[in-house]
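Hello forum,

I keep getting stuck at the same step: I have a sequence, I want structure tokens, and every attempt I make locally crashes halfway through. Rather than fight my setup again tonight, could one of you with a working pipeline run this one for me? It's a single chain of 79 residues.
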Amino acid sequence: MAVLIIALVIVACIALFSAQNSMPVTIAFLFWKFEASLALVTFLAFIMGAIVAAIVIFWASIRHSKKKRASQTAHPHGQ
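Reply #2:
Ran it on my machine without issues. Output:
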């Protein structure tokens, strides 16, 4: 429940920041250059960070469960 509350507070802060900073900005990345609202750029950066974090957490949990399974196979009765 605490994680949900923290997530909602973060989303609310991002929404507030985006609403107050809606002016257009120029984004340059490698060979691309385009103009977008700062709110959109902020939102997309947040979403990309959340996706990367989810992938890292998912990968770590899979790795942990594989180690745990291997440990249980090597010592089936905890000895």
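The beta strands are 24-29, 32-37. If your local run keeps crashing, start a new thread with the error log.
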